[in-house]
Amino acid sequence: MMGREHLHNLVHLAGEVRGADPPVRVRVTGLADPHPESLRLGLRLADELGLPTPQTFSGHRELLASGLCDAVIVSSPNMTHYEILMDIIGHPKPHHILVEKPLCTTVQDCQKVVEAAKQRPDIFVQVGLEYRYMPPVAKLIDIVKSGTLGQVRMVAIREHRFPFLVKVNNWNRFNCNSGGTLVEKCCHFFDLMRLFAAANPVRVMASGAIDVNHRDEVYDGKVPDIIDNAYVIVEFDNGSRGMLDLCMFAEGSRNEQEISVVGDNGKGEAFVPESIVRVGKRAGGRDGVLTIMAEDERIKYQGLHHGSSYLEHLNFLSAIRLQGVSGPSVNLTDGLLSVAIGVAGQLSIEKGCFVTIEEVLAG
Fold it and tell me: Domain Gfo/Idh/MocA-like oxidoreductase C-terminal, which positions (predicted)?
């Protein structure tokens, strides 16, 4: 599904850069997938979008061996990311990489990818934590960075949404494949907490369970073990705190994401999909709160994530063009720490206590 979403974005991106100086070509040359139906749907979409028919491959190694690509987008199931990334990074021909979140399902695999990438200065890896680019979120990030709110003390993120979608062979129903809900879904929000707090995580406390969704599902004799709701508290090394409120049986919500950032001078909020930002100073009180409609005129395709995937691709293209001048906007350290917070949260739920990031990174 996300592979096809990327196809949509690439088509619109190709139209965006035709007039670029120097000229830029964005062309989809190949699709690789061991699942025949996914390949079929990808080819059908490419035809519907008017793309030249891309070559197809039954696996990523065949795609790499073809020599057709300069850059690779990895949008495969989470548990396959590590092997695919290591093969791309280790391939003699350099390929720039945009990998969907999470970077990998375990901290140890993320660390191995980080170390391998250090040996390849001729490539870069960007991690698909695209929630940063959603217009209301990006606007709130700018407000925080401007100092309007003062020193950030608290970050609260609520995601109330629908259950996990059905994926190929139901891989996302089990922690061993996805890394767990707090890794698979919530790495986005832990990444945002780090951005807003401008700090790194120290320890995590979480409470969660599988209370409503998937309880009557059975796959090969196994019942899904992915949690569908949780509260997660994250403490940062500058004294600030973050809190995640996740519920995946809350379709009756006006907004899917509600973000609140409070500093010692003021408060900012972002609402998705309403695309509203509110900001106020303590001195101005309730009457001084401003409401802003957040938009980004660069977005040519809204897609599944309110235009953020399109902006992610713009950033990826820019990093390719400026290689050696600037790195990817979301780097491997960002990917690693977003996974580490999620893993700490999953462990905290299991143990019923705080879990330090230090112990998670130490393995």
Answer: 144-354
pLDDT at 21 > cutoff 70:
no
Q: Does pLDDT of 22 surpass 60?
A: no
Give the 3-state secondary structure of residue 273: coil
**Among 70, 66, 71, residue whose Cα is nearest residue 56:** 66
* H/E element, 11: helix 2-16
The helix-helix angle for 36-48 and 2-16 (nearest 10°) equals 30
| End-to-end Cα spacing for the chain | 32
pLDDT digits (tens, 9 = 90+) for 71-83: 999 999 999 999 9
Of 86, 123, 90, which is closest to residue 104 (Cα–Cα)? 86
**Residue 56 CB partners (closer than 8 Å, separation 6+):** 30, 31, 32, 33, 39, 42, 43
Distance CA 186, CA 131 (A): 11
What is the distance of C-alpha 248 from the center of its chain?
17
* CB-based contact 103:275 (threshold 8 Å): no
What CA–CA distance (Å, rounded) separates 242 from 258?
A: 13
The Cβ of residue 16 has, within 10 Å, a number of other Cβ atoms equal to 18
Query: What is the rounded average pLDDT of the residues 252-273?
Result: 98
Question: What pLDDT is recorded for position 323?
Answer: 75
- Full-model pTM: 0.95
Task: State the DSSP code for 297.
Answer: T
